[in-house]
Write a sequence for this structure.
């Protein structure tokens, strides 16, 4: 066993911080013995309270620092005196775990709920439960495409987790002190001939796990390097010696990890030989092992309605939700996505068959969580007329998830999961937001927070949308739905409400009423009156509101899932000129009911739609009253479009730069011209680098810059360059003088 030095705390430099290490082990635990690991396997397979296949017991025994203590917990649990296993009771099941310390190098990171609401570069694996003889087993199957998918997913989870948060200073000072929630898993691969791998997966405490890898990587290591180290260690495979009996891939990977631990132990011995252990020795000692609760058994209650194979996963998710939704919350989007998808899964498992909707709701669940893409929408809803686009996916998901029977059942399940007594329409809309915007969340990530706030403010859930009896109307052109909507077709009207409302929220043209700035003038970022998001959508889709319905239809028709419109960003809010380049994005447009195509133009140029216009169109009478009541009343002005060349970039003259070199005898003016050209080339290269970064960033939800100091340094440099350019702005051009006569 390890023991700690009875010495004074050690202060170490960690990056830019000083960390006081209160306690550090001077010895590391030895590798466990084969005989002790065998005791775990025998005790586990004989236990009536545990339920794992034999390969999973081998994974548990390999991971434990002291397998003999694990075996004792399993054996003593059969005695009449009571179980030594940890028991947690949730709705429908009891989950049993052993408490032990495990090697860091034996824990694979599971699916990270904190990043689950984001659009990810690598899809999460499919998670399936297991059962034997009608009895649930405390193990899950993680199905990957191939081993490369597993490696990329581990990297993404560790790097993405560290981007959000890190406990490295705390762990360096005190080790990991709170137990991780861990369970056995079998990694299956869809690729033909790929052998499955048994291991342990951390489902709670992933941030602690990732932070430990960051410490092991070193004080100067990036999040990406920490992720690479985790992947290299966890998935390295020892070659099969020709003179030994064949070993499974699980064993070959485990032997490689054991060799890695041996190398760390030797390194620790060298680095801790002095009176005071080195920083490297402290890194190894503080991360070598972590406390864990390893799930080993799941028992379904008689009142449970879930299939046996689904009991363990649901019990585990229930425990995680109780920790992170009720007590130590994830961010709101992660909570809402977890609650919404889990509630839907429970309804599919418990009520869908009774309603005769088992197949449909199963497919709806797959569409909601991303297992099926938007192109599958026509097949799922069995209507070939439905366009297979992300916006039509949103329309049909919203429709089915707001039908009264399913709406009531989902709200009930969500209240149970969140342990709340009531849930308002706004609360339910907030659950749907991260489900609806999944296809475009990465591409529109700069406005995701505002969009999710708008969903939490009611989203598109107007009273008419929530009513029974209407169905969406498929159409290739949303504007074709306006005329039937004005003629009393509720199906067309509600379809426009869902499609147009979702598009306007996604593109930051309908926002939460919190903080909305009032103005009687039509200005970017302002509104004529405050209203909840769903009230604005209801007003736009009100019977007979031509201005509102055309606003919804044009927004839905112009919506693009792969980028933001030009009139959605901060440039418009700050009154800056828009981008001239058509490739910079599409544009939502203001409505003119007198124009043939209903698009407002000034001097032939389309007028961009503002949030002010959207709110105005939702209730013209209220907006006009707000304008009239203002003293003095300001007229509603439509801005003139910027004329071509009006905002042309001024020619910059940054000056001579460095001091003149003695060897350069050229005129100063020539050297200045050369430096101007050099500056232009450097700026072109910078723009090219930014364009390449933007290209690489397409579809990702994680920030491009995870190191704030790096970003701040680049920003400071860019501002310095801009200030210098402004200092050298050329004088305004004067009228050209008349040409001199030829005789002069």
């Amino acid at each position: 066993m390890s023991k700690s030095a009875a010495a004074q705390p050690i202060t170490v430099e960690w990056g830019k911080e000083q960390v006081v290490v209160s306690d550090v082990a001077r010895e590391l635990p030895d590798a466990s013995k084969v005989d002790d690991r065998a005791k775990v396997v025998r005790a586990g397979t004989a236990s009536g309270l545990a339920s794992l296949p034999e390969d999973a017991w081998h994974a548990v025994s390999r991971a434990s620092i002291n397998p003999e203590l694990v075996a004792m917990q399993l054996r003593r649990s059969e005695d009449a005196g009571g179980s030594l296993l940890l028991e947690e009771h949730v709705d429908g099941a009891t989950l049993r775990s052993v408490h032990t310390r495990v090697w860091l190098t034996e824990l694979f990171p599971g699916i990270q709920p904190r990043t689950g609401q984001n659009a990810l570069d690598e899809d999460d694996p499919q998670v399936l439960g297991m059962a034997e003889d009608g009895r649930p087993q405390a193990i899950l199957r993680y199905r990957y495409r191939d081993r490369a998918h597993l490696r990329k997913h581990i990297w993404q989870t560790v790097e993405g987790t560290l981007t959000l948060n890190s406990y490295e200073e705390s762990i360096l000072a005190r080790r990991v002190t709170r137990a991780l929630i861990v369970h056995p898993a079998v990694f299956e691969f869809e690729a033909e001939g790929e052998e499955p791998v048994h291991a342990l997966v951390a489902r709670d405490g992933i941030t602690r796990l990732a932070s430990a890898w960051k410490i092991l990587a070193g004080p100067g290591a990036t999040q990406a390097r920490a992720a690479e180290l985790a992947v290299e260690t966890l998935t390295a495979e020892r070659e099969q010696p020709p003179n030994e009996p064949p070993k499974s891939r699980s064993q070959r990977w485990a032997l490689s990890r054991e060799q890695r631990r041996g190398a760390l132990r030797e390194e620790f011995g060298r680095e801790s030989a002095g009176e005071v252990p080195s920083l490297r020795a402290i890194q190894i000692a503080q991360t070598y092992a972590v406390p864990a609760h390893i799930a080993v058994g799941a028992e379904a209650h008689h009142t449970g309605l879930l299939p046996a194979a689904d009991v363990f996963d649901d019990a585990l998710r229930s425990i995680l939700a109780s920790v992170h939704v009720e007590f130590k919350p994830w961010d709101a989007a992660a909570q809402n996505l977890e609650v919404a998808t889990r509630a839907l899964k429970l309804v599919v498992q418990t009520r869908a068959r009774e309603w005769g909707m088992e197949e449909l709701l199963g497919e709806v669940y797959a569409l909601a969580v991303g297992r099926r893409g938007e192109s599958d929408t026509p097949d799922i809803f069995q209507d070939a007329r439905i366009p297979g686009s992300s916006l039509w996916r949103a329309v049909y998901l919203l429709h089915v998830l707001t039908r009264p029977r399913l709406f009531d059942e989902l709200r009930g399940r969500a209240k149970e999961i969140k342990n709340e007594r009531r849930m308002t329409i706004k609360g339910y809309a907030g659950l749907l937001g991260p489900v609806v915007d999944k296809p475009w969340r990465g591409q529109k990530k700069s406005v995701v927070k505002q969009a999710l706030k708008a969903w939490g403010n009611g989203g598109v859930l107007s009273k008419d949308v929530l009513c029974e009896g209407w169905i969406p109307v498929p159409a290739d052109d949303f504007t074709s739905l306006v005329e039937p909507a004005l003629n009393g077709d509720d199906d067309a009207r509600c379809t426009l409400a869902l499609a147009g409302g979702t598009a306007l929220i996604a593109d930051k043209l309908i926002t939460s009423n919190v903080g909305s700035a009032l103005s009687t003038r039509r200005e970017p970022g302002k509104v004529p009156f405050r209203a909840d998001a769903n009230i604005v959508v209801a007003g736009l889709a009100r019977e007979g509101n031509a201005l509102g319905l055309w606003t919804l239809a044009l927004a839905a028709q112009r919506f693009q899932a792969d980028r933001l419109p030009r009139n959605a960003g901060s440039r418009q809010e700050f009154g800056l000129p828009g981008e001239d380049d058509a490739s910079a994005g599409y544009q939502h447009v203001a409505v003119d009911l007198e124009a043939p195509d209903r698009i407002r133009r000034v001097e032939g140029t389309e007028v961009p739609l503002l949030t002010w216009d959207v709110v105005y169109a939702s209730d013209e009478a209220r907006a006009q009253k707000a304008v009239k009541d203002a003293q003095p009343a300001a007229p509603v002005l439509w801005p003139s479009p910027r004329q071509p060349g009006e905002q042309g970039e001024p020619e910059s003259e940054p000056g001579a730069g460095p001091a003149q070199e003695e060897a350069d005898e050229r005129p100063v003016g020539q050297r200045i011209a050369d430096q101007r050209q050099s500056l232009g080339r450097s700026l072109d290269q910078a723009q090219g680098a930014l364009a390449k970064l933007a290209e690489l960033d397409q579809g990702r939800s994680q920030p491009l810059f995870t190191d704030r100091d790096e970003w701040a340094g680049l920003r400071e440099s860019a501002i310095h360059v801009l200030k210098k350019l402004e200092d050298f702005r050329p004088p305004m051009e004067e009228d050209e003088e008349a040409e001199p006569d030829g005789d002069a």
Notes: Residues 1-6, 573-583, 633-662, 732-744 have pLDDT under 50 and may be disordered. Residues 268 and 281 are 5 Å apart (CA to CA). The first strand starts at residue 10 and ends at 14.
